[in-house]
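Quick one, T. Sequence first:
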Amino acid sequence: MIETNKIYLIRHAPVKKREGYVPKNDPSAIINPDHFKSLASHIPDNSICYVSPLKRAVQTARQLSKFIKLREIIIEKDLREQNFGDWEGKKISVVWEELKKYKIQHNFSFICPEVCPPNGDSFIDQCDRVAKFINNLNFHDQGSLIVIAHSGTIRAFLSLVLDIDHNKAISIEISHLSITSIEVLKKENCKNKGGRYRLLNINKQVI
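Structure tokens:
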């Protein structure tokens, strides 16, 4: 039987939002312990956990560790969310005026994948960061991995491992504290068609 590993991608706990404004880059998470107790029952014990350095993701990892044993928590800068730069905290109506200079808009996303906010980064930039993280993963002795990050980060994962077009990937709904799980073949077993990654579930809501 071919041995595989699994990656459990978890979006951080929700944050307080200001309606009509572009979100802040590093707000705190809203923690409900009951939600984490339920989440912990759906992921494996004694896993290594990689975490975005942003506050809401770190708080989510620490709260989860109260309900499940994590072998190690590793802060990974390449898992951070897309940075909206100078648009952060601005009224969306003001940003729309800037977006009018782009001839093509996206049906489901605030901005297209290639659009880079001033002093920020684009979804394509985010995909490049996530690609570096994935390429550096070594599964030989790690077993299952947990990744606690952001909706954009998880969309970037799906775009990369399933070869989904950026414009399609940015449309995927990823809810707070949902689980997206991927099965991974070890490189030495990846000899046939179908690639190395298999999507097991996406945006599985357990709370």
